[in-house]
Amino acid sequence: MKDTEKRKSETTAILLAGGKSSRMGVNKALLSMSHGVNIAAIAGELEKEAGGALLITNTPESYKFLGLPMIADRYKDSGPLGGIHAGLCASKTDINLIAACDMPFIKAEAAREMVMHIGEYDAAVPEIHGQMHPLFAVYRRSCLPVLQACLEEGQLRVRQFLNGVRVKVLKETDFKLFHQQPEFFPHIFYNMNDREEYEKAKKLEREYRHFLN
Q1: Cα(122)–Cα(87) distance, integer angstroms
Q2: Spatial distance between the Cα atoms of 210 and 213, rounded to a whole number of angstroms
Q3: Number of structural domains, the chain?
Q4: Are the C-beta atoms of residues 13 and 99 closer than 8 Å to each other?
Q5: Beta bridge partners of residue 13, listed in sequence order
Q6: Domain range holding 165?
Q7: What distances in angstroms separate CA 45 from CA 35, 119, 123, one per listed residue?
Q8: In angstroms, rounded to a whole number, what is the distance separating the alpha carbons of residues 82 and 96?
Q9: By percentage, how much of the chain surpasses pLDDT 70?
Q10: Which H or E element spans position 7?
Q11: Over residues 91-99, mean pLDDT
């Protein structure tokens, strides 16, 4: 088996679609971009770098069209941490690509580089322009004991969880994609929480369409 195929077979993509989208007013995962329904586009990118994909959601009827296995949170109302926990519990691989459903410009190339950088760490998390992005990152199942402890204690901050595991922090310059597309690269980690940010995403999509095609 080639290295690329082996890496993919040992990786699961986990999409988090459990948010309430209260600030947006509509389901962020189902918003339309020029490249299609947001969550379908994200799934398509991640599946290029994984042997399989899981969708974490408490409203499975909304996502039947994706044809993905769907997993409910084990810890209800626990935010992204509960989603990561549910995904890692359900995954059959050690390496797992996690992505939130509100990041319209996720690229497979960035996902691939994160997987390749994790080494012996428990997690590989990008830090772009000084901001950590734990909801487009890579996690091993070795994170589960710390995740479990955080959830049992009601500690739902992702940063607190990360303090308990071995994290490889990835800077912009760790990504080949940054050197190839420095203007567009930060937008890979852009997330949209309200209508204003959605309109900005559509503007960015028009501005950088040559990178997105």
Answers
A1: 15
A2: 6
A3: 1
A4: yes
A5: 53, 97
A6: 3-212
A7: 11, 22, 20
A8: 15
A9: 95
A10: helix 3-9
A11: 98
